[in-house]
Design brief:
Number of domains: 1
Structural class: mainly beta
Largest sheet: 14 strands, antiparallel, barrel
Strand order of the largest sheet: 2-3-4-5-6-7-8-11-12-14-15-16-17-18
CATH class: Mainly Beta
Strand content: over 45%
CATH topology: Porin
Number of helices: 6
Helix content: 10-25%
Distance between the termini: 14 Å
Length: about 475
């Protein structure tokens, strides 16, 4: 069982990670909106292309947390702690230059636990969005010379969340079969259609779960811009800075259900299948509520001395502690899954984020709805293997791919889209009653215009996740 010292140490490390300023992105496209939005999935899902809406965690070891759809919390049957980090490498290229960057950062931490026999709860923290860009462009002027424009941004938002999932009808199928236990088979066959429909609906309702997350977004976004003229003796350069501080609540909700096929009809008889087949369905909804923000904005004229130092001359704009609002984009998604026995699990997502409805303070920038598609598979040779060589038969292998249409439009008219292929591995480890899994996922992809002219980012991302599952709050008869 996890001790108080271990939990306190872990909490301190997480707080240190979150408070420490990190370069979590170098993308020039993080300049727009709230920055580069982080995925809501953990290392397990990352290896499956990020598909998660219809992914139902198993109720037996090894467990994992699916924070992307809070309806999945209802299946948590052991207290599960999960922490993770990222390492990423990016190569940016355009028609005139190229740049290589790499960094590592804290990815997430979450704790999930069962609530009686019908539900489960989860709370955690993760980065929500990141700013990290340093851009420069020049404009030729026949009378003045080359005018330089510089844009910089850093900071980001974090998300602390707490959620609850419940299966309100989890005993529906048992009650249905109990009521029909002594009904003669001849009567069941007589009313075969009605009986099968009622049994099927009982299966679906028994596996139906609902969940909600309450999210607290907090952090700051700092953006600066400069206009530098070639000769400061005749022209004043300009500097503008805006710092947005945000701390407010939003939320999301989800649902999941499933039905199992365990027999087929052959030669007029129903024959049990060697491996059961389960189909899963899921839905997701993210609020598009308006959240409050405070911001400071300042503008100055300045000149450069002979050493290149900025010497401020006049204040042209200075406002502090200004109030404003941000309207978040609404998110809608559906998912479907297919599971064969305990070996193969395939899931697919289709989601829409309405960035066209996004409003950021007094900005009038236009954004477009983003469409996301994801497909993933998890394969384990023998989940409950024992004896010699059991470790390798219990290893999980994961593959996937995803695509996003993008919400930023370039001057060429093309959207900044992205795609990625993923692979991952889950290594089960455990000592005594403690059962854990180390998840390692790798992603390779590209962000930018697919055909037109513009900056393209080719990236590698490796996500490490550490999962610890155990039974808490037990009373032992003997020491």
């Amino acid at each position: 069982m996890f001790g108080k010292k271990q939990i306190a140490l872990l909490t301190a490390l997480i707080c240190a990670f979150v408070s420490y300023s990190q370069n979590n992105t170098f993308s020039p496209y993080s300049r727009y909106g709230l920055g580069e939005i982080n995925p809501t999935t953990f290392a397990h899902n990352a290896g499956m292309g990020g598909a998660h809406i219809a992914l139902k965690p198993d109720s037996v070891i090894p467990l994992f947390i699916n924070a992307g759809n809070p309806a999945s919390y209802a299946l948590v049957r052991l207290t599960t702690l999960e922490v993770g980090g990222n390492f990423f490498y990016s190569q940016f290229s355009s028609t005139s230059s190229s740049l290589k960057k790499w960094s590592s950062n804290f990815a997430y931490a979450a704790l999930a636990f069962p609530v009686r026999n019908k539900g489960g709860a989860c709370f955690g923290i993760a980065p929500y969005s990141n700013l990290g860009y340093d851009l420069q462009s020049k404009e030729a002027n026949a009378f003045i010379g080359d005018i330089t424009y510089k844009f910089q941004g850093n900071g980001g938002l974090n998300k602390a969340f707490i959620g609850y999932g419940v299966m309100p009808f989890n005993e529906r199928l048992i009650k249905f079969r109990t009521r029909n236990l002594y009904v003669p088979d001849s009567m069941k066959r007589y009313r075969n259609g009605a009986y099968k429909v009622r049994e099927f609906m009982s299966k679906v309702l028994s596996d139906l779960s609902f969940g909600v997350n309450a999210n607290y977004l907090f952090g700051n976004l700092q953006q600066t811009s400069r206009v530098v003229f070639p000769n400061s003796l005749y022209y004043n350069n300009t500097y503008r800075e805006r710092v947005v501080n945000l701390g407010d609540f939003t939320g999301n909700a989800g649902m999941q259900t499933a039905f199992t096929i365990d027999s087929v009809r052959r030669g007029g008889k129903r024959v049990a299948m060697k491996e059961k087949v389960k189909f899963t369905l899921g839905g997701f909804f993210g609020l598009n509520n308006t959240i409050k923000a405070n911001y400071n904005v300042a503008g100055f004229n300045y000149i450069l001395n002979g050493f290149g130092d900025e010497i401020f001359r006049d204040t042209i704009l200075y406002k502090i502690d200004q109030g404003g609002t941000i309207t978040l984009p609404m998110e809608l998604g559906v998912g479907i899954g297919f599971k064969k026995g305990e070996r193969i699990n395939i899931v697919a997502d289709a989601a829409l984020t309405q960035w066209s409805k996004f409003k950021f303070l007094d900005n009038n920038e236009k954004y477009y709805d983003n469409y996301r598609l994801a497909l993933g598979m998890n394969y384990v040779p023998e989940k409950y293997a024992a004896g010699n060589g059991a470790f390798w038969r219990k290893v999980n292998y994961r593959f996937g791919a995803n695509y996003q249409s993008g919400f930023i439009q370039l001057l060429s008219g093309e959207l900044v889209s992205s795609y990625a292929v993923t692979a991952g591995i889950g290594l089960p480890v455990g000592i005594g009653r403690l059962n854990s899994m180390v998840n390692i996922s790798g992603q390779y992809g590209q962000t930018g215009p697919m055909t037109g002219v513009g900056t393209k980012e080719n990236f590698w991302r490796v996500t490490f996740g550490f999962n610890f599952s155990d039974r808490w709050f037990q009373k032992f008869r003997y020491d």
